[in-house]
């Protein structure tokens, strides 16, 4: 019989699929996307949850009956909740209020407790999601805070799994790797592996929301979730990407909708953002039909049905719907 012993044994090994319609007229390069929403918890964060919890157990930071406390925009929480369940830990997650209610309800469905904090406050404010989670850690006996922003097991999990999967599935023919930057764990771990495996041949490209510090912004707010920052986390090694391309919310959301409608790929806004950055890079001079771009798509669109995929929400926030018959050149202009 072919089956997994437990749901957590199904993390990783996600497939690559080629983009067709959205690349037409933009580039001759092959553009492949890696579907991280096919992980059991629905995102790339399942990978880091596994490594982070196992390392904490080994180091004695997480003991039987302990509680995992983490500020998370949702996906890391789901990954941690999955592994916590298997191992008998409790979870308390702190989310900024810009995170959709759907995503918060998913965390609750897995048995976690969720605390909501305001988005529009400085990181050092006592109300910020970083400060609130620190307070909960101090007040909860047996608490362990994975701190995905500084935990080296985040980038390590991508170095050990995501990178080798991409290298092997492309038979070493990948020329460009593109990923959004949130904690920076994905691009740091995967990018480092691919640089080493290719002797520096693979170009590593970060995608970042306009306003975020990684692409030179001030840290001002933006709507795309899970990526960009207003500070520099240690999980991110800025020496790994060769370049970081900034993408507006409007471009990210328009591409996210096109991926669903034209490619049948229902993903979140940070995925649309990464594809926009990839197409900008793939339409640059010097890119040829021999180039193979791999773009990591972190999560599913199901958590954004009330936002990115809701015309009323888009209009209310000033992101008009992509016009019918638009060309990619117009979208990326
Ligand atoms: N997209 C989404 C939806 C995310 O939740 C995250 C994680 N914050 C990212 C992208 C970025 O991944 P990383 O933290 O590894 O940079």
How would you describe this protein?
- The chain has 333 residues and is α/β, with parallel strands linked by helices.
- It contains ten helices and ten strands.
- Strands 1-2-10-7-8-9 form a six-stranded mixed beta sheet. Strands 5-4-3-6 form a four-stranded parallel beta sheet, sandwiched between helices.
- It is globular.
- The C terminus is likely disordered.
- 4'-deoxy-4'-aminopyridoxal-5'-phosphate (PMP) binds next to helix 6.
- Its EC number is 4.2.1.22.
- Keywords: CBS domain, Lyase, Pyridoxal phosphate.
- Its cofactor is pyridoxal 5'-phosphate.
Q: Short summary of the structure?
A:
The protein is 35% helix and 15% strand. With 333 residues, it is α/β, with parallel strands linked by helices. The structure holds 4'-deoxy-4'-aminopyridoxal-5'-phosphate.
């Amino acid at each position: 019989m072919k089956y997994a012993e437990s749901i957590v044994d199904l993390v990783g090994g996600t497939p690559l699929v080629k983009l067709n319609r959205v690349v037409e007229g933009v580039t001759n390069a092959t553009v492949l996307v890696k579907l991280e929403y096919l992980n059991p918890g629905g995102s790339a964060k399942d990978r880091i949850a596994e490594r982070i919890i196992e390392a904490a157990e080994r180091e004695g930071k997480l003991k039987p009956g302990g509680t995992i406390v983490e500020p998370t925009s949702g996906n890391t929480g789901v990954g941690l909740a999955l592994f916590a369940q298997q191992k008998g830990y409790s979870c308390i997650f702190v989310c900024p209020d810009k995170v959709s209610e759907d995503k918060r309800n998913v965390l609750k469905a897995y048995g976690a407790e969720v605390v909501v904090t305001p988005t529009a406050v400085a990181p050092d404010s006592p109300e910020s999601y970083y400060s609130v989670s620190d307070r909960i850690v101090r007040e909860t006996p047996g608490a362990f805070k994975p701190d995905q922003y500084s935990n080296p097991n985040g980038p390590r999990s991508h170095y050990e799994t995501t990178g080798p999967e991409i290298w092997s599935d492309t038979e070493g023919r990948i020329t460009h790797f593109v990923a959004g930057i949130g904690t920076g764990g994905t691009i740091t771990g995967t990018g480092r592996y691919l640089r080493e495996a290719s002797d520096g041949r693979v170009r590593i490209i970060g995608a970042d929301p306009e306003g975020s510090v990684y692409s030179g912004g001030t840290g001002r707010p933006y709507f795309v979730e899970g990526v960009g920052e207003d500070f520099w986390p240690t999980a991110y090694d800025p020496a790994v990407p060769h370049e970081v391309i900034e993408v507006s919310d409007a471009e990210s959301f328009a591409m996210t909708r096109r991926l669903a409608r034209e490619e049948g790929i229902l993903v979140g806004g940070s995925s649309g953002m990464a594809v926009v950055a990839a197409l900008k890079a793939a339409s640059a001079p010097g890119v040829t039909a021999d180039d193979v771009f791999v773009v990591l798509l972190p999560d599913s669109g199901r958590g954004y049905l009330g936002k990115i995929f809701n015309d009323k929400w888009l209009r209310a926030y000033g992101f008009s719907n992509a016009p019918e018959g638009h060309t990619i050149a117009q979208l990326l202009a």
